[in-house]
Amino acid sequence: MSWYALFVKTGEEEKVRNWIYTQTIAEQCNCIVPKRKIKERKSGREYEVTRILFPGYVFINIDMDFEHYYKIKSIPKILKILGCGSYFTEIQPNEMTPILRLIKEDGIIDYSNVIIENSIVTVKSGPLKGMEVQIKKIDKRKERAQVLLNFMGVPTLVHLGVKVIMNTQ
Description:
The protein has about 170 residues and is α+β, with helices and mostly antiparallel strands. The chain has one domain (about 1-169): NusG, N-terminal domain (Alpha-Beta Plaits), CATH 3.30.70.940. About 15% of the residues lie in helices and about 45% in strands. It has three helices and twelve strands, in the order βαββββαβαββββββ. The strands form three sheets. The chain has a five-stranded mixed sheet with strand order 9-8-12-11-10. The longest helix is centred in the first third of the chain and has 10 residues, at about 15-20. The termini are far apart.
């Protein structure tokens, strides 16, 4: 089975995911909408929120053939199945593996605990452990890390929540 990306109407990702699980293809696939926990500030107060990692996209793991393709295309709110010159193109394993490694069973990326020593970032625990090379920038005030992930052949910067447990600069 391979992973594919469904381009859906933004804000309808969970509805599409639930729709797929209620259809006849449900027993033959796995469907995720990766989310991330981050802190946001509004009116001087700090809130923890859960946001979708790739708004407008749903990932499906299925043995895709034209029968499944047309069943998926018939689902409301799906705009298209991403493809490069063909009807559908699988997401390469080297692109999907880091995303799957980051998320937990519930599809949410939790906070990572990081230490910054002399501008060198070390991840002590959390989903980013072992992915220090992909961290491009840490915003200590917002408690976010910019992480470089490849998505359908395009390098994409995503913001993930971190907790800076020690900072010696």
